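Posting this for the archive.
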Amino acid sequence: MADPKSPIAEGRSDSYRMEQLDADAEVARLEAQVRLVTPLENDFLAAVGLPPDAWLLDVGCGPGFFSERAARDLVPQGRVTGVDVDPSLLALARERLAGSGLAVDFVEGTGVRLPLPDDSVDASYARFLLQHLTDPGVVLREMVRVTKPGGTVCLVDTDDGALLLHPPVDGFDELLRASYQAQKARGGDRHVGRKLKALLLEAGGVDAGVRLYPFTSEQVGAADFLRVTTGFKAGVLGPPHIATERLKQISAALEQAQQVPGFFGHAMGYAASARVPRA
């Protein structure tokens, strides 16, 4: 865990901290997240035009599941650099990929001050990161700074305004409200997806655009859908935003909902990109 007083932790909010979670369950959720949204990201990055020999920066890389896939499948003639503020996650990433032969490296750092020179990488990417940032504009300006003129800044995130379940699950709306308030109190934003285009333009990007990708239980199954969309919420919630016993009741109702033959869950992936202007 990074010392909260150290420069490496500057700008870090409390919206996402591994030490507040069940580490094994969260790592499993992150792996499932990468695996399940691969079709979305493949389509998005193909549309962006990421060349196979690009140098890609993965901001907030965590245990490196996406960095690994990108180095293997997306930029096989290029390289990937993963940056994260949490040294324990970086240690896991390095351990997992030791001896893999992939052109990927991991660097401890914060998005507030990315540990790269100006105009370094061909593209920079932040996946499900901005929802955890107190001031995402600071990180986006850093991503613009380290990306070469003509290169691309890419974002994927979500927005709970598009998270729906049927049949209705007792307490689910209460869970969403509590999650929004809890993450806001910690410096995060569960409604960041709708803001990505504006944030990119404010950070100095040009030609910004957003693609929307439905993510449903029909694609991945009820259990995996709920694991990805609600697992983090249950992991960080508690008093004063919701009583512990009430959270247990809602979690049990979500478990039961998976068994309903007509269950349907819908979420939305927001994929945004902008070009770094040429001088």
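Confidence is low (pLDDT under 50) at residues 1-12. The chain is about 40% helix and 20% strand.
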